Amino acid sequence: MAAPALTPVEQLVTRARPHSLVVATGFAVAGGVMLVAALVAFYLGFRNEISDPGTNWVPRGVDIPNAQLGMAVVTAILSMITAQWIVYASRRRERGHTFVAIGITILFGVAWINMIFFAFNFMEVGIGTTQWSNLAYTLTGVAVAIGMVAIGFLALMSIRAFGGEDGPEGTAPLAAAVMFWHFSVLAFIALWYVVFVVK
Amino acid sequence: MTEATTEIADAQPVLPPREHQSPIGWLTTSDHKRIGRLFIVTALLVLGAGLVCELLVRIDLTDAEDFVILDADTFGQIFVLSKDLLVFGGLVPLFLGFAIYVVPLQVGAGNIAFPRAALASFWGWFATGGLLIASYSINGGPYGGEAEGVDLYLIALAGVLLSLLLGAICVAATVLTMRSPRLFVDDTPPFAWSALVTAAMLMVTIPVALAQLAMLYIDHRYGRLYLDGNYGIFQQLEWLYRTPQLYVYAIPALGAVAEVIPVWSGTRQQQRPVVAYAIGAFGLAGFGAAGSLANEPVYFEDYQGLLNVGLHALALVAVLVLLGAWGATLVHSRSLPRLDAALLAALAAGLIFLVSTAHGVLGAFIDWSPLSDREVQLLLTTWTSAGQALVIGAVLLAAVAALAYWAPKIWGRRLPEPLSLLALLAALAGALLAAVGPAVAGALQDQPYLVFEDPNSTTNYAQIVDDVGNADAYAAIGAVGVGLLLAAVVLIVGNIVLSALFRVGAAAAADPWGAQTAEWALPSPPAMGPLDDLPDLVDGTPLLERADAAGELAAASGEGDDAEAGAARSEEAGEEVTV
């Protein structure tokens, strides 16, 4: 193809574009924030329509496992630390540290998602029984979906890292995955607080 | 650090493989130009289908007491289907297609960011759009009688929205991270800027709809406890299909108009930063998600009503500013602008945008104002249909302009001018008629937009409207308008078919217009696949800068006076980049 010689053409084919994925992930996170904010707003809006939501909102007899869910939140917060460890190690080309951190982070992620499933089994709240149960399933379901996307994203970027894309120039994919991971944890905490603490 | 870690080579960009020339290439392409073409052509076809559905609905409203074409089982479904097809099948993907094609070339990128994601965006949109239509075919969708069909609709619509968001992210990432290193964002051409604004606004509004779809799906599938089952779906989502949210989908149409007018004026855009700010403000005005936070469609009684007035007013001010800047550009034209279809359609789009935003402000103000003694808010009448028709008409006119302008770059030939002019006239008349009829019927006779609880009552509105008056006649005017809009789409598609398939129309040089932006430095159409050599842009209008420099050089060397050099600017630019 003829080159469009608008100005002296440099050797630009190899322009480094390491931040495309980070920027795109930033857009996805922005959308995710709006998703979570909308869910919280809808939840509180519906709750506000109930007279005396302190007693009429959550079905009677439902025992929310606060200790276990609190542990899930702590686990999720810990995963943010290990996620940041991924970026720290990757930038320094510490491959051993990088993959240990990835493994631990994904393990933590699976753990807090598992804890949510446990919580719903423990509560024995059937979906489709009350308005609260449907909303609770929706909000926590979205949190779980976001968490699973974060795990998948991190796993995918880890495969790229296995292929050699790390170091100061190549750490952007992992950084993007970690950015999304932080968002997934914060989204989970926000939705946990609204559904299980504010109720 | 271990030794093993030091052996890792630095990351090197990998160039995408060359394109398959066969039809299979359309399935596997990573070329933004092919993906853009896929979006543009498919979106135009779906837009036509949406207008057919809209026409059926409008015809049914011409009889105040009975159905005309549709029946009690299908009216509500076709009503919502028409909105889905028009907005998420037509308006949004049409200009997303333009953006995917044009923006990388405008900003000096070799390809779109994440080309495979962009391809996934198209095929995801296509597949989930097909599922959405299929859901109606099994009596699903809002107001459908088949529960599984309704669930399928909700999933399919979420898929459509996610696919479009994916494409928008690719475009935004291209502008932000793949433009020439010395090209600042605020120097990018207006269409690239508008695509970026659109992506940002889509990212902050569409997820609200995704949240609603999640709630609707869970509630509809499990118990139908609080969202009124299939009758509550459109009530929750109707904000997606009316102003101010519609303005978000129309932002790139303004960007396209902003590309055309300076080129046809033969001069640089006056107050260019102001144009960029106005496009951004117009996008902010489309923050219609705010309206969705009410669980009832009637909410214009308090601060939300005032917010609605403010959003519409912001859009109106933005359009006025844009019209002023474009007018100043035309006034500063060094010679009389060529009255081609592209310029006329761009001006007509600007006019309809002005009418649309003025209509929006008036309706929002009347609904909010304590002085208004209306029993039924305008939002719930066909006044809303008028607003939709105006935005659709404006975007369609901008599409006529964009196609007349970019068709040589996309398909290598100029579109036949007579058909473009006919499409322009049909779209202009259609937009006005499709708006005037419903606006008057809504304002004077309270003709309902949609009775959410029982959509069939919308057709039999004599039962619920005190004074039917001439509402049926006004509805007929609206139907004629929609028919004209449909004719415009048919003419546009026919024009493309004639040009691209039957080679009618002049073969285009690299720059047949004396254009200003970087895509016109490439052959028409550019070869498939990523560019081998990327331009090093320092300005969004490099051809204009080069032509101006050539004019100054000619004047300085005594080869002609300034006026002649200026008048010949376009031709010089065309020759220079074609060689």
Mind explaining what this structure looks like?
The complex is a heterodimer of chains A (about 200) and B (about 575). Chain A is mainly α and about 200 residues long. Chain A is built from seven helices and no strands. By secondary structure, chain B is an all-alpha fold. Chain B contains 20 helices and no strands. Chains A and B meet through helix 1, helix 5 and helix 6 of A and helix 1, helix 6, helix 7 and helix 18 of B.
Topology:
The complex is a heterodimer of chains A (199) and B (579).
Chain A (H helix, E strand, L loop, with lengths): L19 H29 L4 H4 L9 H26 L3 H29 L7 H32 L4 H4 L1 H27 L1
Helix pairs in contact in A: 1-5, 1-7, 3-4, 3-7, 4-5, 5-7
Chain B lengths: L2 H4 L17 H5 L3 H29 L14 H32 L8 H23 L9 H31 L12 H32 L11 H5 L7 H21 L6 H14 L3 H4 L10 H29 L9 H28 L14 H29 L5 H29 L10 H4 L11 H30 L41 H15 L5 H6 L1 H10 L1
Helix pairs in contact in B: 3-4, 3-5, 3-17, 4-5, 4-6, 4-9, 4-14, 5-6, 6-7, 7-9, 7-10, 9-10, 9-12, 9-13, 9-14, 10-12, 12-13, 13-14, 13-15, 14-15, 14-17, 15-17, 18-20
